[in-house]
Amino acid sequence: MKHLLTTEQLSRSEAELILDLTGRMASAVSGREIRKLPTLRGRTVVNLFYEDSTRTRTSFETAAKRLSADVVNFAAKASSVSKGESLKDTALTLQSMGADGVVIRHPASGAPQRLTEWVDGAVLNAGDGTHAHPTQALLDAYTMRERLGGIDGRTVAVVGDILHSRVARSNIWLLSKLGARVRLVGPPTLLPRAIEDWPVEISYDLDASLRDTDAIMLLRVQHERMHDAFFPTANEYARLYGLDERRLGLMPDHAIVMHPGPMNRGMEIAAAVADSPRATITEQVANGVWVRMAVLYLLLTNGEL
Amino acid sequence: MSTLIKGADLVGRGRGDVLVRDGRVVETGTVSAPAGASVVDADGLVLLPGLVDLHAHLREPGREDAETVLTGTRAAAKGGYTAVCAMANSYPVADTAGVVEQVAALGRAAAHADVQPLGAVSVGLAGERLAEIGAMADSAARVRMFSDDGHCVSDPRLMRRALEYVKTFGGLIAQHAEEPRLTEGAQMNEGAVSAELGLPGWPSVAEEAIVARDVLLAEYVGARIHFCHVSTARSVEIIGEAKARGVRVTAEVCPHHLLLTDERARTYDPVFKVNPPLRTADDVAALRGALAEGVVDAVATDHAPHPPQDKDCEWPAARPGMLGLETALSITVAALGGPDACDWDMVAERTSRAPARIAGLDAHGRDPEPGAEANFTLVDPARTWTVAPSELASRSRNTPYAGLELPVTVQATFLRGRATVLDGELAPVAPPAPRTRADAGLVAEEIE
Fold this sequence. Notes:
The complex is a heterodimer. By secondary structure, chain A is α/β, with parallel strands linked by helices. Chain A is built from 10 helices and 9 strands. Chain A has helices at residues 12-29, 54-66, 87-97, 111-115, 134-148, 166-177, 234-241, 245-250, 271-274, 281-301, and strands spanning 44-49, 70-75, 101-106, 122-128, 155-159, 181-185, 201-203, 215-218, 256-258. In chain A, the strands form 2 sheets. A 5-stranded parallel beta sheet of chain A has the order 7-6-5-8-9, with helices on one face. In chain A, helix 2 (54-66) links the parallel strand 1 and strand 2. Chain A is globular and about 55 Å long. Mean pLDDT of chain B is 95; it is low at 439-448. By secondary structure, chain B is of the alpha/beta class. In chain B, helix 1 packs across helix 2, helix 4 crosses helix 6 and helix 6 packs parallel to helix 7 (233-245). Chain B has a 5-stranded antiparallel beta sheet with strand order 5-16-19-20-21, with helices on one face. Chain B has helices at residues 69-78, 97-110, 133-138, 156-165, 192-197, 204-221, 233-245, 255-259, 281-293, 328-335, 338-341, 344-359, 437-447, and strands at residues 2-9, 15-21, 24-29, 38-41, 46-49, 51-56, 81-86, 114-117, 145-146, 172-175, 188-189, 201-202, 225-227, 249-253, 298-299, 376-380, 385-386, 405-406, 409-415, 418-422, 425-426. Chain B folds into 2 domains: 2-46 and 372-426, Urease, subunit C, domain 1; 50-359, Alpha-Beta Barrel (TIM Barrel), CATH 3.20.20. The A-B interface holds A 8, 80, 86-88, 106-111, 113-114, 128-132, 166, 169, 192-198 and B 187, 190-192, 194-201, 203, 267-269, 309, 312-317.
């Protein structure tokens, strides 16, 4: 594995290897006095972020530092209005500086794949447009494995704005590969067209989708979608697709509630649900660091110890 | 001076010779070479009427870094074209008599192919007010076709008025059919591939809704309409139905829509980004069928050169469009069944006669009859070639066919009896005096 661009490109055994290694990272570091491993000493990881995302950038930075890598944060602007340096020129700059790995977040779908044509180092996709966010899906899968005891045969409902969600796309490919039954729930306006071949079930009715669900994954709804006629009002969205306490009661007792963050409390998730013990939101954040350690380790050492 | 073309396949009329003098055909059949005539051995070659492109972006004036009229018509000649219609989206826009006359003059000076400018329908392609269509029609450029190509004339009232207005001189509107509200932010065909790639989709219905509307408008006001670059199965279905009803509608298809599908977007390489986008295999099959049946009248290149920085970037940042002039004939032949199975008369019809009729270019699209202008192309049906971007005559390199082996090669192109291409290479044409700094640079390079 040279780069991590999508979960679609991972084989089941590669995905399982990453999840196993995630567990080892967690136990290797947890409980230590110095929470750091020497594994990537002398390697340089560049965080190339074209979108503001303190959460994801900090998670990658923490992961790289816990592996003793040198971390360079390269905040760039990708605006069609103020044309800055091109992605290619930035890539050639990083290449000349000798980056061993580039973690890229970009508003354009496919930008990480383009980057692989211009740099020799490993490219790690930290979210591109509405395409993919593989480490988010991996940390979600790891969280499910920890909380549900496995993924194979479990039913996962992904709810909300599938059309614009890179998190949903990455989870669909990964979870189905790991044997889960994936169900997409949302209004037809927020589901992509022509997805008959995707390994998913599709439902427009959230209530009817809850009884057999082992995990529900709520997607952040951007308020601006409202102005584009994807749905009439925030209130109506919350009424039809928000997870409140009544709906939580329709789910099996063991079922967990997931959210990639940042949440819109009162919109896709009620505050009481977000704060309930069934919610795994803070665990997901913690697991994100272990997953990113595992991936950085695999990509930068080619899996050799 | 005279030229004798010996032993060409005269498409439908067997093997024969064509004698050309002073730019016109003087004799066909079995002709012995007059004294002093240059003889072109055309044994095994197919003689087509010179190709006519209804749709090219020659970029001059304004984007001479991408293409000039000179480099664009050199590319045209290499592709077998003797006439090229230049789209109006230059800088400044070709929305006045002055700009269309400038483009026409540049074409005459370049002398590699006849250049027929199109005029814009609306001022600045803004879709608000009619451009001075009458002045462009009356100008030395004699514009008959008007198009806001790159933009749809989406306002139904403006479209109605434009269709009516051009009736005064027998003109026509070439519509870029794209309902803009359905394609905001669109990057590629909307479908299974765009869903997976997370690129905002360009729905086929955005094209079809305008095709359907404008067929009805043209029918209602009794005007001529032409559809640029139709790309979907449903569009050609609507056009076919309209033709059956007697609506005066014509349509063109681009070579890339006859060959490539949206699967190409999986590379995220914007060389495959184009508007209208590459569609599905079902659309490709329907377009090939419509071209063979004549529902689609003509092949047009939508030749759209772009400098490297507009393609060497992430997909959404890239400009849409691809080169087409030098590869169009090969791809058309492939789409019509390949060099052995295709009907060469149909190739001549779709790439030359029909587009010449649509554009009103009477001297082009004519088979070699005595008296006709000697505009034609000699094609080697047996010789394949591999597309090497660096060897193209265009100033730009954004061909989607790099490395692809294509059937048939253009061996020679004659414009009014003078070879613009001979033995597959650009023939030395008396270099026109440099007119722009860009062309001056090009000429200097050649002298080196």
